[in-house]
Amino acid sequence: MTYRYRCGTCRAAARPTATRAESEARRDHHRDTVHGGLVPGGDRVVRVRGAEARDPDVRYVSGRAVLIGLGLLAAATAVSRVLGR
Ligand SMILES: [Zn+2]
Q: What is the DSSP letter of 38?
């Protein structure tokens, strides 16, 4: 499961975390540092999936994309060899 803390007042979301407890810790830190310990409107920890669950700061290349790239490279090499004769 992946969780994110969202602050409706700031219209901001924290980076995704693997546990609810981690997102709650980010929430508590945000409340203390940005809102003086108060609970801002729209403040919540939510479970997320798909694109929302991916950390935007982590570069990720899927295995499928790499295989397609290698396949295209192999095809281009074969065509080049055939045409080069
Ligand atoms: Zn906020």
A: -
Domain of residue 70 covers: 2-84
pLDDT digits (tens, 9 = 90+) for 47-79: 999 888 888 777 767 788 889 999 999 999 999
Residue 36 DSSP symbol: T
Claim: this prediction has a pTM higher than 0.85: no
Q: Express each pLDDT in 1-53 by its tens digit.
A: 999 999 999 999 999 999 999 999 999 999 999 999 999 999 999 999 988 88
Give how many domains the chain has, as a whole number.
1
Query: How far is the centre of ligand 1, averaged over its atoms, from the C-alpha of 9 (Å)?
Result: 5
- Rounded to the nearest angstrom, the distance between the alpha carbon of 2 and the centre of ligand 1 is 20
Phi, psi of 64 (to 5 degrees): -65, -45
